[in-house]
Amino acid sequence: MAVIVAMTEKYANDFAQWKYDGEYSFYDHNTNNVDEYMDGTHFAYLDAGGGLMGYFCFGEDARIPTVEKDVYDDGYLDIGLGLRPDLCGKKLGSSFLDEGLQFAFNSYGMTHFRLSVAAFNERAIKVYTRAGFYAEREVTNSYFLNTFIIMKCVRSLITK
Asked: What are the backbone dihedrals phi and psi of residue 101, each rounded to the nearest 5 degrees, phi first?
């Protein structure tokens, strides 16, 4: 059974070195700034043996910078997430996302969630759509100048 724990420097260093294939390399992290992951909003997703499988980020740090103004309205908890590259495409996305949403509900008491996903990432968009997220709008990332989709979800029946 997987568990979500506070981010540590070791876990941050581990996921900062993950390398994704092809166009997904867009999601590679900067290994120079792992301290920013120790801000209390980042969490490690571990397997039963304590191995790092993924990570979550909650709150404003999960947002992307956008060219458009005022795209993030109040009332939603922003979620950022990443699954270890060798686990992508193995049908783990739905349970990974569900566990993150459950953790967010238990930790923050929120039922309204939002995430920002690169428009090319059809694999992730399918997972998010199956989980009840819908596309609210397209925006332009002000750093990379690529298109992102802001997706929202209301989960009022979280029971764990």
From this structure: -65, -40
| For residue 160, pLDDT beyond 60 | no
Expressed as residue numbers, the domain containing 25 is: 3-154
Q: Considering the domain boundaries, does residue 97 fall inside one?
A: yes
Contact present, 77 and 104 (Cβ < 8 Å):
yes
With respect to residue 159, please indicate whether it lies within any of the assigned structural domains: no
Q: Is 50 left (phi over 0), alpha (psi -120 to 50) or beta?
A: left
What's the rounded Cα separation, in Å, for the pair 9 and 2? 19
Whole-model pTM?
Answer: 0.92
CATH code of residue 39: 3.40.630.30
Q: Does residue 100 sit within a domain?
A: yes
Using one digit for the tens of pLDDT, what is the confidence trace for 64-114? 999 999 999 999 999 999 999 999 999 999 999 999 999 999 999 999 999
Domain membership of residue 160 (yes or no) is no
Q: What is the pLDDT of residue 129?
A: 97
Closest CA to 117 of 76, 70, 81: 81
